């Protein structure tokens, strides 16, 4: 072939590669030249990539409730976050409610015998106070700053109280029960019933 033509043809230039060098530049150059990487190169690349990430300590998984504890508190009937999202309150089947730190899911307070029957619902009213209702036909108001005893006990329903809702602008709480009634409570001043609706009534024949 004519030497003049050969000079104009493309050709591959061979560059010496240090097989002991695992640097990024060497790896990229080997790929450009179509050469295979030395055994262990991928391990080197991965270690460089992943060890450059910031390290975060993963909190230990909270210990699940043991069988005896499950029997003690029973099922979870309702969950409610505090208004600032820092606390989670669980209403329990066995007359109790549990307070959890929402940031690490650890139980920080247990109130046993909160009611004389299962606790069905929890509803926060403001930063510190919340209400619970129960199959004992009562509604109780609590303050996070002193959980030794409820601040108020409200009666009116004649059957299991199952749900609580709260309207902050009006300062009114609404409760419903298995007796077919809905009560509206004024919480701004002296707690009292300001409205009552009987949706239905029924007679249980034994």
TrEMBL record:
Signal sequence residues: none
WD repeats: 112-152, 154-195
UniProt keyword list: Repeat, WD repeat
GO cellular component annotations of the record: Cul4-RING E3 ubiquitin ligase complex
The family this protein is said to belong to: Belongs to the WD repeat DCAF10 family.
The protein, known as: Uncharacterized protein
């Amino acid at each position: 072939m004519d030497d003049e033509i050969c000079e104009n043809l493309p050709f591959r230039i061979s560059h010496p590669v240090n097989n002991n060098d695992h640097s990024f530049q060497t790896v990229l150059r080997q790929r450009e030249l179509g050469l295979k990487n030395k055994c262990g190169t991928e391990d080197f690349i991965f270690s460089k990539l992943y060890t450059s990430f910031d390290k975060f300590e993963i909190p230990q998984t909270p210990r699940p409730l043991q069988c005896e504890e499950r029997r003690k508190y029973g099922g979870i009937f309702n969950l409610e976050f505090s208004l600032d999202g820092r606390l989670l309150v669980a209403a329990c089947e066995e007359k109790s409610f549990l307070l959890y730190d929402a940031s690490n899911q650890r139980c920080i307070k247990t109130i046993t015998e909160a009611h004389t029957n299962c606790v069905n619902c929890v509803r926060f009213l403001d930063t510190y106070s919340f209400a619970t209702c129960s199959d004992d036909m009562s509604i109780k108001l609590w303050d996070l700053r002193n959980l030794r005893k409820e601040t108020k006990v409200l009666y009116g329903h004649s059957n299991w109280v199952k749900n609580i809702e709260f309207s902050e602008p009006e300062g009114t709480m609404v409760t419903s029960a298995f007796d077919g009634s809905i009560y509206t409570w004024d919480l701004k001043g002296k707690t009292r019933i300001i409205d009552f609706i009987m949706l239905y009534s029924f007679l249980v024949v034994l």
